[in-house]
Amino acid sequence: MVFQRLEDLRVDKDMTQQKVADLLNCKREVYRRYERGIREIPIWALIKLADFYHVSIDYILGRTDNPKSF
To answer: Is the pLDDT reported for residue 2 higher than 70?
Structure first.
């Protein structure tokens, strides 16, 4: 599964993959794999990203088109 929304959220916030990786305390390559759906993203990282971007986890996962549906 490709998490296109992860990339869209990152780009909208003018963040690089490295900056997001730093936020998650991981290597850029690990984050790139999350963003591309090559590696499963852990729930703790989803929570941290949802909090950082002020959106719901369901929005990141594509379960809703409403970013604020908590």
So the answer is: no
